Amino acid sequence: MLDGSTDYDVLIAGGGNAALCAAISARRAGARVLVAEGAPRFYRGGNTRHTRNMRCAHDAATETLSGPYSEEEFFDDLLRVTGGRTDEALARMMIAESKEMLTWIVEQGVRFQPSLGGTLSLGRTNSFFLGGGRAMLNALYRTAESLGVEIVYDAEVVDLAIEGARFRSATVRHAGKDVSIRAKTFIAASGGFEANIDWLKEGWGEIAENFLIRGTPYNRGTVLRMLIDRGVMQIGDPTQCHAVAIDARAPKFDGGIITRLDCVVFGIVVNRHAKRFYDEGEDVWPKRYAIWGRLVAAQPGQIAYIVFDAPSLELFMPSLFPPVEAETIGELAEKLGLSPAALERTVAGFNAAVRPGTFDHTALDDCRTEGLEPAKTHWARRIETAPFYAYPVRPGITFTYLGVKVDRAARMVMADGRPAANMFAAGEIMAGNVLGQGYAAGIGMTIGSVFGRIAGREAARLVSSASQSPEAA
């Protein structure tokens, strides 16, 4: 129970991957650490609960990775998905540091499984957590607790006392009371604002009402808003985010990975007018799946439909919900509430444009369309074998990119350009430094792990140096 009587070296707001990496790093450096997790214990960990893997650079194949993934290739992939909208110095530093994370995070109790193949195409680049994100998270919590990190749940940071560029204390709401917590340093690792629909509307307008939130309902951006209001420099575009196409039947919040749909490349995607609107085969899925949330958000009613036929049914990870099924395209359209004539016309036009090739769902194959706008440049096969299937999809927001500016030490930067005296940030709350737009699978966990470890290390170092030189405090 919090009572405000203890002074901490490091106060961390948040309870996910970034927060735990920061807590462990700081504690191993000798700091007294308090983690204030705004969610109840069962829902602890924010979006980390729903993750599966992490992208790290490595020089050679391992027991859990099928081949090398160089720092330069990682950076090239990042440039491709962000269109160059990244802080190159920070990104390169993160990628270099990521090479150590595969060993460091295992030392904290996290276990990886053998590499995966199939449609994910990530066996060489991404390490998959044995048991998924919740198992990974539980391992970090066990390690943090065994080291003596203090953790409190249902503990939302509702106010911050910041004088100039220096953090003094935080007000934490816990057990029906507001408690003032003093700490020598503060680390913000409390996620973005994707669960705050009103804030999303500030950037997106009323269409945000039709968005589904893939992750935790507790990421409302409370700490982020306070930091910006108290003089920390913000970075990023409020409309940029990790947004994927998820099953439209998913719950408003916390649907997680099982509502994501990976079948776009195997069929066509149409809007509610039964018209295609983008190349479904532009690139391998891990480099393109995160563009589809924004694409669907731009369609009428923020809804679309993935249409495919029987040969593709077992080529991808299915949704929690079964696909809509019919014996004809017209019947499928009726079940979806679309114009049968319009969908039949779209499918017929697509089929006529498909050119023969050698289908290979693991590579950029030569199955394409010709004379069709928009084209489908890979994995184009005629949709002609009954039964026919469809999934309705809506934009699924994972996390937002508007955040706080940090430097190489994960230290926040104030609006006037000064480094904060004793405030750090890690994870989604500062992801916009690396992700100006776009996404590559697993990079969110990389950002959280790398900057979390740095933030904890640097916060502990600051406390140690201040204790040896009191005038620095």
UniProtKB/TrEMBL annotation:
SUPFAM superfamilies registered for this protein in UniProt: FAD/NAD(P)-binding domain, Succinate dehydrogenase/fumarate reductase flavoprotein, catalytic domain
Annotated organism of origin: Shinella granuli
Gene Ontology terms for molecular function: oxidoreductase activity
InterPro entries xref list: CobZ, FAD-dep_OxRdtase_2_FAD-bd, FAD-oxidoreductase_2, FAD/NAD-bd_sf, Succ_DH/fumarate_Rdtase_cat_sf
Cofactor(s) annotated in UniProt: FAD
Occurrences of domain FAD-dependent oxidoreductase 2 FAD-binding (ranges): 9-436
Coiled-coil segments on the chain, per record: none
Protein name: Tricarballylate dehydrogenase
Superkingdom to which the source organism belongs: Bacteria
Pfam families assigned: FAD_binding_2 (PF00890)
Keywords: FAD, Flavoprotein, Oxidoreductase
